[in-house]
Amino acid sequence: MKRLVIVGTQWGDEGKGKITDYLAQKADVVVRYQGGNNAGHTVKFAGQEYHLHLLPSGILNPKITNVMANGMVINPQAFAEEISRLKAFNLYISDRAHLVFPYHQTLDKAGEKQKQDQQIGTTHKGIGPTYTDKSARIGMRVSTFIHPDRFYHELEKIVKSKNEEFARYELPPVSFEALYETYLPYSKLMKPYVTDTSKLINQLIDENKKVLFEGAQGVMLCLDHGTYPYVTSSSPTAASVPVNTGIAPWLVEGSIGVTKAYSTRVGSGPMPTEIDGNLAQEIRVKGREFGTTTGRPRRIGWLDTVVIRHSKRVSGLSYLAVTLLDILSGLDEIKICTSYTLNGKEIFDIPAEIEDFAQCTPNYVTLQGWQEDITNVQSFAELPEAAQKYLQAIEKYTGIEIAIFSVGPDRTQTITVKDIF
Ligand code: GDP
Ligand code: IMO
Ligand code: MG
Known about the structure:
Shape: globular
Number of strands: 21
CATH topology of the largest domain: Adenylosuccinate Synthetase, Chain A, domain 3
Oligomer: single chain
Bound molecules: guanosine-5'-diphosphate, 6-O-phosphoryl inosine monophosphate, magnesium ion
């Protein structure tokens, strides 16, 4: 495959950054297609760890063309901060991407506060309010932002209406002049990177370049196919790539579903296989399961293949990349959820109603664990038999072949089982 999508199959933080960076060694182009700096993608190589929020995970390789596509929402301040830490890079930003301003963040927090015990547990990065403005046709695109006069007039109009919204939350008004003055330098900083990225990506495809499309979040956080309303405000699915980048659907050749060897979730909402107590804490500490963006402890659960099969159907997943397998070393038993019970009936799909999903109890198969340290393993054959059986069980219950597995955070701790890109 020459054009491959990297999709999170669970609730985000599956290791998409790591897998993107790994596959990027063979790519020409990496495109981030949705979300904003709610994402936190970790890349580790040569003893260095990088946390990327807006920039595509190909950015650490200066030979790669990196694209922030039209489906993204970009916080200019966060962008400035992120590029300030890098040396050489080759980056393009879509003129049609939308911008996140501080009032979006304020409204994100205020909206959450108003929900009291029904909070989504957002990252407070203003993502929901920015996509809301985009849908309501009152957002600001990058193309306007980089034009000082248009930016001035557009912002003046928007701030007026935002201040009316602020008043409803009893929040103090925003000063338009101060906001303009602060953000004008960011617009100048961004301008040299801005282009029609749909045109660029299509040109690169015409030149037969190898392209990775890097998703943020995970399918269970998809606005359409996730555990609504406990979701983000964009679609991480492979199916959303054409709209979010401006390419024809048939140009996407396949996708690799990045799957953590167990489940994690940050924020609220049901998670049928959630576990707590000592075991959860042990996995949390060993897997360093604390949010890359917010530092929040991640909730822990067993691998849920109902979730992965759902992701396969709604997103399309050609292969899996199973990550963090090393974290399960040392357990006596490992469970895999294969179906749920709801109202006394066995079900194999995720119900649409969140109240029903919250009542689903998991049905498990239990596998034997392994005690060996697997962090230096370089092939499937070197894995202990129980770990091999665990991977085979994942293939069996998801119906998807594993192309890659990963046994540590470093680029070198990644094993290709099947060469697909
Ligand atoms: P992303 O949002 O999907 O890119 O994932 P994050 O970077 O937020 O979270 C994944 C975490 O797991 C990061 O700290 C990675 O460095 C780490 N990681 C990725 N793959 C492995 C692995 O195979 N083993 C271990 N121990 N850590 C991994
Ligand atoms: P990466 O790309 C994990 C979660 C938030 C919250 C919900 C909505 O690193 O996998 P938002 O701020 O998007 O409105 O929050 O989505 N969330 C993520 N969880 N990884 C992410 O990104 C996430 N991005 C958003 O915790 O539950
Ligand atoms: Mg993350």
